[in-house]
């Protein structure tokens, strides 16, 4: 199952779809143009069903194979949303919307899955139903959860689900995956510390919130080195630190910090929340300050199912001679995690070459990766639902 020749023939079309999406980036659930274009293309391809507005603006296409006696239904997912970043990439199809760009390659994911859908509609060389899922709001909006909450899995009878993300720094055509945790959970916290503002010359008459917040910041970083099992992975980062003072000779009355907590284990996730709360509240109390902590859980850990990971690897090996089977997990997060909580499946990385990193203003998806990604999507369907027999 090498790169399918059909994707060489379709490459130009798929690139044109991607460049069109890239020029018209949309955020979160406001992907109306993108979703409409996706739905129109799926209808043109001949999908048996095309359903819009699943999870607000998600699109689902159903493709029935030449045989359907297996009763098998396998889902493939791509994300459609962009990021609120001003593009700095020097390409002739750059974003036409100031302050928005496809800085994470979702334009490429969407285009590759569209290519696979077109191929599957043409060939239908499988026994069962393929469900192609185009999801909004991966970038912080939990679009996967929204689609699941509206009955995605039950409504379309999805039994397995597979997804893909491009990976800068890995060679184009290289696949990378591991069983178990592959991407971290993403929680966040906001701390407001209120003390007693005053003059910098008389600190004994004030409650110095800047000093208290600084101690909290240092001790938050000690959680990882002193409370977390050294064989586990946890990252705690304070991304903002703001006082209500703009003068060098003023002790701030109030400080606000916001940060991120990422874990690869659910037990460490609970420990991190407990220790962040204890550190924040304990230090503030010791210095006579008032504190308000808001701790919000976000995307869960993305956990690949063991058996599904092997299926994903075998398909990848049929396409590329460069497959990393035991890749190290990474600490960014993915709302595909919700789909893998709902159904067995796997999430794989596809190399994007020596590009800028995701979320960088100069990032660009590498069009040379398209035949590999489209072949893998289509290959999953043909491998999991082969004609003539039913695979468990």
Query: CATH superfamily name of the largest domain?
Result: Zn peptidases
The tally of structural domains comes to 2
Strand element count: 16
Strand order of the largest sheet: 1-2-4-3-5-16-6-15
- Level-1 CATH class name of the largest domain: Alpha Beta
Largest sheet, described in full? 8 strands, mixed
Q: Which spans of ≥5 residues are poorly predicted at pLDDT below 50? A: none
**Structural Rg:** 24 Å
In short:
This protein has helices at residues 5-23, 32-45, 106-123, 143-149, 152-155, 209-226, 266-286, 306-319, 336-342, 370-384, and strands spanning 49-54, 58-64, 73-79, 129-135, 160-167, 175-176, 180-183, 187-194, 198-199, 234-243, 250-251, 254-263, 290-296, 302-304, 323-324, 345-351.
What does this structure look like?
By secondary structure, the chain is of the alpha/beta class. It has two domains: 5-182 and 300-384, 3-Layer(aba) Sandwich (Aminopeptidase), CATH 3.40.630; 187-296, Alpha-Beta Plaits (2-Layer Sandwich). The chain contains ten helices and 16 strands. It has helices spanning 5-23, 32-45, 106-123, 143-149, 152-155, 209-226, 266-286, 306-319, 336-342, 370-384; strands at 49-54, 58-64, 73-79, 129-135, 160-167, 175-176, 180-183, 187-194, 198-199, 234-243, 250-251, 254-263, 290-296, 302-304, 323-324, 345-351. The chain has an eight-stranded mixed sheet, sandwiched between helices. β1 (49-54) and β2 (58-64) form a beta hairpin. α1 (5-23) packs across α3 (106-123). The longest helix is centred in the last third of the chain and has 21 residues, at 266-286. It is elongated, with a radius of gyration of 24 Å.
């Amino acid at each position: 199952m090498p790169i399918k020749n059909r994707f060489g023939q379709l490459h130009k079309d798929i690139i044109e779809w991607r460049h069109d999406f890239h020029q018209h980036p949309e955020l979160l659930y406001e992907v109306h143009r993108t979703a409409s274009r996706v739905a129109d293309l799926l209808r043109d391809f001949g999908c048996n069903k095309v359903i819009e507005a699943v999870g607000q603006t998600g699109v689902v296409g159903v493709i029935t194979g030449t045989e359907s006696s297996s009763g098998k239904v396998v889902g493939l997912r791509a994300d459609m949303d962009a990021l609120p970043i001003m593009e700095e990439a020097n390409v002739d199809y750059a974003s036409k919307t100031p302050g928005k760009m496809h800085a994470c390659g979702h334009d490429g994911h969407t285009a590759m899955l569209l290519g696979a859908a077109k191929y599957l509609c043409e060939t239908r060389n499988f026994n069962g139903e393929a469900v192609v899922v185009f999801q909004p709001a991966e970038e912080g909006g939990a679009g996967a959860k929204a689609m699941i909450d509206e009955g995605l899995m039950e409504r379309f009878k999805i039994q397995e689900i597979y997804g893909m993300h491009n990976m800068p720094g890995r060679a184009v055509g290289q696949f990378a995956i591991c069983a178990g945790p592959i991407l971290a959970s993403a929680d966040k916290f906001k701390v407001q510390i209120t003390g007693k503002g005053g003059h910098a010359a008389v600190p004994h008459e004030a409650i110095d919130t800047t000093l208290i917040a600084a101690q909290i910041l240092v001790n938050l970083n000690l959680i990882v080195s002193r409370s977390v099992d050294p064989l586990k992975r946890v990252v705690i980062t304070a991304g903002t630190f703001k006082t209500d003072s703009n003068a060098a000779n003023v002790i701030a009355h109030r400080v606000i910090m916001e940060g991120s907590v990422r874990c690869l284990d659910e037990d460490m996730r609970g420990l991190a929340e407990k220790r962040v709360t204890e550190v924040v509240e304990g230090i503030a109390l010791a210095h006579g300050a008032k504190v308000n902590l808001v701790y919000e859980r976000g995307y869960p850990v993305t956990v690949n199912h063991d058996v599904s990971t092997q299926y994903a690897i075998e398909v990848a090996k049929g396409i590329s001679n460069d497959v990393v089977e035991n890749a190290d997990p990474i600490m960014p997060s993915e709302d595909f995690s919700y789909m893998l909580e709902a159904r067995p499946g796997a999430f794989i990385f596809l190399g994007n070459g020596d590009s800028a990193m995701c979320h960088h203003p100069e990032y660009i998806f590498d069009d040379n990766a398209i035949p590999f990604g489209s072949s893998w999507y289509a290959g999953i369907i043909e491998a999991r639902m082969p004609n003539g027999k039913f695979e468990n």
